[in-house]
Design a protein that fits this description.
The protein is of the alpha/beta class. The protein has a 7-stranded mixed sheet. Helix 1 crosses helix 6.
């Protein structure tokens, strides 16, 4: 008598997200033959000076790959009813940016997974990658957790550390965390696929928790009284957005490429904080005095103008050397 092996049905997965981070996580899943039944993201938003309606990066990618998409302005009763009709096995949430209420988290049979690029309970909240860089941390990591209604407070399913290089900027660290997060998430999905249940979980220690905030444009403003290391870490964290800036002749000046000069660690008594000056070296590096140490400027951009090298900038701005940046 022949024995019939039961065929394992693929999981019905709904994926929530919005920015580049979530787009890349989804791309990895598709490349590894994880089928996604529905993508949920935010409605198109006005972007730039002309306020052109622009889709999220996740939506653009989903459209290119002919995935089903739903956009919700809020997660209300109508959303709940709709999601229940989908009868999902699993939610996957990656940088969705909206708190999901418990009544919606209860919908999938096997729960809702969240991809968070930090070593939870450290760096809960909206900006774990930027905050790790801004604080000058030497390591971070990624966590796959089972969601609850708290701010990244759910039980940990998988977690792994990642070292941070002292010169690493946001785009570089984000890519590494995308790669790490994708592999961890795939491990969890594979386990669920085979066992039809979640892996073992570990509760977070709330006493060790730290939190991050939503990054605003004004967070990029440089305080020249800070140390050169603090300003350098600010530049690393906000390299993509909002970028660090100061004011020169009452004009916003964005510093797009800078260097940390480690040899100078104390205030130069001859220079005021925020003063721009030439180094005494033959190559005449352009430096700015900080509260402790100096910063070297390589590339910069006046608001509304093109980015340019410091050499070209000085050629058109004769009074830049000796000015005080605010």
């Amino acid at each position: 008598m022949l024995s019939l092996q039961k065929t394992i049905q693929p999981l019905k997965i709904i994926f929530f997200g919005a920015p580049y981070f979530s787009q890349e996580i989804l791309k990895f899943l598709l490349k590894n033959n994880i089928s996604i039944d529905l993508v949920i993201t935010h409605p198109d938003q006005p972007v730039g000076r002309k306020k052109i309606l622009t889709p999220t990066e996740l939506k653009s990618f989903a459209l290119e790959n002919k995935l089903a998409i739903q956009e919700f302005t809020k997660l209300d009763k109508i959303t709940e009813v709709f999601l229940k009709t989908q009868k999902p096995d699993l939610f996957i949430v990656a940088a969705y940016g909206t708190i999901i209420p418990q009544n919606i988290l209860n919908i999938p049979k096997l729960g809702a997974l969240n991809v968070h690029p930090s070593l939870l309970p450290k760096l809960r909240g909206a900006s774990p990658i930027q905050t790790a860089l801004q604080k000058g941390l030497r390591e971070t990591g990624s966590t796959i957790m089972l969601m609850d209604t708290g701010m990244d407070t759910g039980d940990i399913l998988q977690q792994k550390k990642l070292p941070i290089k002292s010169t690493e900027k946001y785009p570089e660290l984000e890519e590494k965390l995308i790669d790490l997060s994708s592999v961890l998430l795939l491990n969890v999905i594979d386990h669920i696929n085979k066992k039809r249940k979640l892996p073992s979980r570990q509760k977070q220690n709330d006493q060790e928790s730290t939190y991050t905030k939503i990054i605003q444009k004004q967070d990029g403003l440089i305080n020249w009284s800070n140390t050169s290391q603090t300003i350098y870490n600010q530049w690393r964290a906000f390299y993509s957005w909002p970028k660090i800036h100061t004011f020169y002749n009452n004009q916003k000046l964005i510093l797009t490429e800078i260097e940390l000069i480690k040899k100078s660690v104390t205030i130069n008594n001859e220079k005021a904080i925020g003063e721009v000056f030439f180094s005494k070296l033959k190559n005449k590096n352009v430096l700015v005095q900080t509260g402790q140490g100096v910063i070297k400027i390589n590339q910069l951009q006046l608001a509304g103008k093109k980015e340019m090298s410091i050499k070209n900038f000085i050629n058109g701005q004769n009074n830049f050397i000796g000015s005080i940046l605010k």
